[in-house]
Amino acid sequence: MASPTSLLKRLLLGRPFRSDHMQHTLLPKRIALPIFASDALSSVAYAPGEILLTLSVAGAAAYAYSPWVALAVVVVMLTVVASYRQNVHAYPSGGGDYEVATVNLGPKAGLGVASALLVDYVLTVAVSISSGVDSLGDAIPLIGQHKVTSAVLLIAILAALNLRGLKESGLLFAIPTYLFMFAIVGLVGWGFFRILVLDENLQASSASLTILPEHGMSVATSLAFGFLLVRAFSSGCAALTGVEAISNGVPAFKSPKSKNAATTLLLLGTISIAMMLGIVALSLMTGLQYVESTDQIVGAPANYKQPTVIAQLAEAVFNHFPPGFYLVIGVTALILVLAANTAFNGFPVLGSILAQDRYLPRQLHTRGDRLAFSNGIMFLAAFAAVLVIAFQAQTTRLIQLYIVGVFVSFTLSQIGMLRHWNRLLRTERDPVARRRMNRSKAINGFGAVMTGFVLILVLLTKFTHGAWISLAAMAVIYAVMVAIRKHYDTVARELVPSEERPVLPARNHAVVLVSKVHLPTMRALAYAKATRPDTLTALTVNVDTADTRAIQAEWERRGISVPLTVVDSPYREISRPIIDYVKSLRRSSPRDVVTVFIPEYVVGRWWEHLLHNQSALRIKGRLLYEAGVMVVSVPWQLDSTSTTNLDRLDRSLARTPARGPRPGEDGYVKTHD
Fold first, then answer.
1. Is 11 a domain residue?
2. How far is Cα 408 from Cα 401, in angstroms, rounded to an integer?
3. Residue 265 located in a structural domain
């Protein structure tokens, strides 16, 4: 019978997949779009709001510039989409920006891109979940009152869904994503129809408010306002986050992988641009106002909370059709939450590649029961939850940290692609192929200029608003990855066998630890004898004179032929006298080895582990650091390890697909999560 833990895991995650099931998890375009593009698609729910929010500093008159700011963002998005279409054709292995930068610019640039992407993925989850909680709070006050708790709970639910596997989570997320697209297109289309065709005067709920500029800022102050426009543009560029996820996820597509990934990129860009421009235009037509601080609103109530841009538009457009309003609000909140799924697909894959290159712990490299990178998913969920708690799930504070990392990776990736095409052009002689390469080079070159320009603007406008935190996090992650690689390289060098034949030990001294004269001790003695050591000693530590005398008396009564050695412990410590005794054997014969046999109980219930084997664990931990000392655990199964439990273990091991260690890995058995 399966344990409660196994049943709960099966209920939440489903049955394990065999390794040869991998081909059945590949994604068609209709499923890949909601999985990899949900972040970029959902950004239309908050990117227009960020543009209006920034422009509000100069007062209501500044909203007239929002379409031009949005058009500038669209130009950058088109450039990035076109550039990444070249990336997925040139590097379809799934390394994405990291692989492009590493191959063409070197390992340091690759690590810089990797650190930027890791930070960006964590922020994607934090920002998306916080935005979703904001939207849900407009409809459900209880969620708005407990934002942090709700956000952490949603992160946990998303992590559990992704642990079920890529295709399974995609099927769950596809319907809400397509519903969101339908709702936003319907909102914009019906709003335009009512205004342009029916000639109705639709007004947003905030249209009648009087907005004052902050700190004397106005459209008339050209220099300051110009800087404000740049800030609005950099905030609107949040719409570009998530585009790079498709280049990391190319291996997850069905064949032809590169073509399907490039088509999905094009769909992503087209849909996102259409929805964002529609929302910005409709906001201008309805007189919608969205301010950075409610202090700017003349006569605002003390506890006034302004609805989101989408909520105001839905209320104005569907003022006579409440179901339309609730549909838009509901699916917007849902897509903002599900946008974090892009990161849950990108972070684990990138983490696996970095782990394979020995820049992250090897545990991130292997897949779990459902062929998902389970450890990477749980790492991401934990880091995002910490970030949400630290920033109290406030989207406005988190958004300032957001797009620095993604534009660092955009820029370095495009520069890397330029070097890629230059390298190929040096050897390519076919005119048709050269024209194609030159066209791709021009696209990537323009992309490098545009994304580099945006990166500089983002750093200038957002550095003091929180972007420095992202840069600091990237530096820390970079240093940690370098340290991990250095450690793995050091271990690999130390483990390389020399050309000389290994020298066999002169003798083997066996030491059996004795705490009582009972069945585990007798089994350990028998097993030690079976190994035929040169010397065999039974060792007990005298921490209580009466107990020690009882052990000696029982030893003599049973006529055990192995000599019992007693070492005193005046301070009642067990491990130190044993270590000192073993060291003395090593000092007297450095070419000899000492094998220490430790009898241990095997228990079947979790709470029994707390009652047994604690001394054995401490002794083993200390002995592992002694050169020339081998530690052997001799198990004794108690009655709580029933036949049922052993059969369950056998079945579990039978389900686990075996594999040999990869080159450079430890030769230990790798288990699922």
1. no
2. 13
3. yes
Instruction: Tell me phi and psi for residue 211, to 5 degrees.
Output: -110, 125
Distance of CA 163 to the CA centre of its chain: 12
Amino acid in position 476: V
Same domain, residue pair 473 and 531: no
Q: Per the structure block, which two tokens stand in for 668? A: 């230990």
Within-domain flag for 673: no
DSSP state of 599: E
Same domain membership, residue 554 and residue 411: no
User: Could you give the CA distance from residue 340 to residue 337 in angstroms, rounded to a whole number?
Assistant: 6
Q: Average the pLDDT over each of 10-19, 303-312, 424-433, 628-637 and give the range with the smallest value.
A: 10-19
Task: Return the sign of the alpha-carbon dihedral for residues 242, 244, 247, 251.
Answer: negative
Q: How far apart are CA 245 and CA 659, in angstroms?
A: 30
The helix/strand/coil state of 255 is: coil
| Distance in angstroms (rounded) separating the CA atoms of residues 178 and 121 | 23
For the segment 514-519, the average pLDDT, to the nearest whole number, is: 89
Phi, psi torsion values for 508, nearest 5 degrees:
-120, 115
Q: 630, 595 in Cβ contact below 8 A?
A: yes
Measured CA to CA in angstroms, residue 259 lies from 273, 331, 511 at distances of 21, 30, 65
Nearest to 308 by CA among 238, 444, 205, 388: 205
Tell me how far apart the alpha carbons of residues 338 and 430 are, in angstroms, rounded to a whole number.
46
For the stretch 530-569, pLDDT in tens is: 999 999 999 999 888 888 899 999 999 988 888 999 998 8
Evaluated on CA atoms 364, 366, 370, 373, the torsion sign reads: positive
Q: Are 162 and 169 in contact (CB under 8 A)?
A: yes
Element spanning 588, H or E? helix 575-588
Q: What number of other Cβ atoms are within 10 A of residue 460's Cβ?
A: 14
> And the tokens for 448?
């490098």
Single out the residue of 457, 460, 455, 408 nearest to residue 119, CA to CA. 408
What is the tally of structural domains in the chain?
2
Tell me the mean pLDDT in the region 190-199.
Answer: 91
**What's CA 331's distance to the chain center, in Å?**
25
Q: Which domain, by its residues, includes 396? A: 24-489
Burial of 388 per CB tally in 10 Å (0-12, 13-18, 19+): buried
**What amino acid occupies position 82?**
A
pLDDT band at 139 (very low <50, low <70, confident <90, very high): low
**Which is nearest to 315 in space by CA: 191, 140, 132, 179?**
191
Q: What percent of the chain has pLDDT over 90?
A: 13
| 51 in Cβ contact with 211 (< 8 Å) | no
Per residue, what are the HEC states of 112-133?
HHHHHHHHHHHHHHHHHHHHHH
3-state secondary structure of 207: coil
CATH number at residue 201: 1.20.1740.10
Q: Is the pTM of this model over 0.85?
A: no
